[in-house]
TrEMBL record:
The lineage of its organism: Bacteria, Bacillati, Bacillota, Bacilli, Bacillales. InterPro entries: 6-PGluconate_DH-like_C_sf, NAD(P)-bd_dom_sf, UDP-Glc/GDP-Man, UDP-Glc/GDP-Man_DH_C, UDP-Glc/GDP-Man_DH_C_sf, UDP-Glc/GDP-Man_DH_dimer, UDP-Glc/GDP-Man_DH_N, UDPglc_DH_bac. Keywords: NAD, Oxidoreductase. The keyword Oxidoreductase applies. This is UDP-glucose 6-dehydrogenase. Pfam families: UDPG_MGDP_dh, UDPG_MGDP_dh_C, UDPG_MGDP_dh_N. PANTHER family: UDP-GLUCOSE 6-DEHYDROGENASE TUAD, UDP-GLUCOSE 6-DEHYDROGENASE YWQF.
Length: 434
């Protein structure tokens, strides 16, 4: 099938690459010339394990191409997938200007009947508006239908999440359009659920808000475990064995971040508000998450009294491992609080330093290695659970520090390893300190 994709961010690029991999002919369109030039040379604009090999291979096989031209890129497409960003507006609502722009660009350039599958996360009702915009702006003899096709991939495991998706949601009010989109995804051999457009739009927000709330719930349980001397990891394991609860997304820590959960929870709350529904539950999800982001700083204040003049090593900057994405990363709140309190911060991250510099500037020192980062520090904050932090050579790290104190915001160090150390103070989340 001939498919065009608008937007080469995480969602658009991964979808394009995976659809090419299962045999479709895919053209990805983006207005950013440098991005397209790099993609044509097999260079990915995002850090995502495995994606560059797939790009290069599918370009070679003639199944994947990239262009800045709408005219060329939309030629003969049976389905156009739209995956442009919907960032957060100041009032918490989703900013739909990129999507509306994309709709007009499609309408002005399309020359054949086409189905438009919207992957961008959009408030309920938006797909209907997009359909109207396109119909008003395109030639009257062209039939355009819009299908809601929300995306559930995670950064860092985007390829796997697409190729082995738990489900594909197709929201359509037209049976034939739903059938064509279903046929496009069939080779993936994953469960497909067809719903109305509005239900599909709602499934995306309801899923992300539920997962974010699951994290806030376990974080609040962790805080209670600390007060009561219980261990949140055992509690989560015990809860997760119940199939109705499930083990995933029960890792306590310093809160959820990234470009999706914070934005989508706020957008759903905003939608509820303007529709007269008081969604207090989501307000709690957000407020627990805000509290959790300050947790390590609070623990450090309890330990040291004042943080002025203390040198703190921050291991990890990205909002989670295997990505260089700094959007809504808890590290931003943590580092800003530490520097406001007069602490000196030195940070290390395997891939996110360039992006971190754009947000945090020169408020801190950036280290080139773990060893450089921890030398002569009063404490380590583990902020992102990168594999190399899980595998820290603790005795050698502790020797380099002024004080052998670790605040582990992701519970990523093994207890036996810590107990083997002669001198250490270890403060995890939701578990007794050592
Ligand atoms: C999330 C969803 O998981 C995807 O299903 C969805 O498609 C995506 O948003 C989106 O809407 O585009 P992502 O933001 O890439 O994916 O990251 P996650 O792996 O879900 O992690 C989000 C945050 O939750 C991270 O900060 C992570 O550290 C935190 N988290 C996750 C926890 O604190 N505890 C957990 O148990 C799990």
């Amino acid at each position: 099938m001939k498919i065009s994709i608008l937007g080469t961010g995480y969602v658009g690029l991964t979808t394009g690459v995976c659809l090419a991999e299962i045999g479709h002919s895919v053209t990805c369109i983006d207005i950013n010339e440098l991005k397209i030039k790099n993609l044509c040379a097999g260079i990915s604009p995002i850090y995502e394990p495995g994606i560059e090999e797939l790009i290069i291979n599918n370009i070679k096989l003639g199944r994947l191409s990239f262009t800045t031209s709408y005219d060329k890129g939309l030629e003969d497409a049976k389905v156009i997938i739209v995956a442009v960003g919907t960032p957060q507006r100041e009032d918490g609502a989703a900013n739909l200007s990129y999507l509306e722009g994309a709709a007009i660009d499609i309408a002005k350039n399309i020359k054949q009947d086409v189905i438009i599958a919207i992957k961008s996360t959009v408030p309920v009702g938006t797909n209907e508006v997009v359909k109207e915009i396109i119909q008003q702006n395109c030639s009257k003899d062209i039939v355009v239908d819009v299908v809601s096709n929300p995306e559930f991939l995670r950064q860092g495991s985007a390829i796997k999440d697409t190729m082995e998706a738990d489900r594909i949601i197709i929201g359509s009010n037209n049976q034939e359009s739903a059938r064509i989109v279903e046929e496009m995804y069939k080779p993936l051999n994953v469960p497909i659920l067809i719903t109305s457009i509005r239900s599909a739009e709602m499934i995306k927000y309801a899923s992300n808000a539920f997962l974010a709330s699951k994290i806030s719930y376990i974080n609040e349980i962790a805080n209670l475990c600390e007060a009561l001397g219980a261990n949140v990891e055992d509690v989560a394991k015990g809860m997760g064995k119940d199939k109705r609860i499930g083990e995933a997304f029960l890792y306590a820590g310093i809160g959820y971040g990234g470009s999706c959960f914070p934005k989508d929870v706020k957008a759903l709350l905003h939608t509820a508000g303007i529709n007269g529904v008081e969604f207090g539950f989501l307000k709690e999800t957000i407020s627990i998450n805000n509290y959790q982001r300050e947790l390590l700083v609070k623990k450090a204040i309890e330990r040291f009294g004042i943080l002025k003049g203390k040198k703190i090593a921050c291991l990890g900057l990205s909002f989670k491992p295997d990505t260089d994405d700094m959007r809504e990363a808890p590290s931003i709140n943590i580092i800003n609080s530490l520097t406001e309190l007069g602490a000196e911060v030195i940070a290390y991250d395997p891939v996110a330093i360039d992006n971190a510099k754009k947000i945090l500037g020169n408020n801190l020192t950036y280290a080139h290695s773990i060893n450089e980062c921890v030398t002569d520090t009063d404490a380590i904050f583990i902020v992102t659970e990168w594999r190399e932090f899980r595998e820290l050579d603790l005795p050698s790290i502790l020797k380099k520090m002024k004080n052998p104190i670790i605040f582990d915001g992701r519970n990523c160090l093994r207890e036996e390893k810590i107990r083997d150390c002669e001198k250490i103070e270890y403060y995890p989340v939701g578990k007794p300190s050592i």
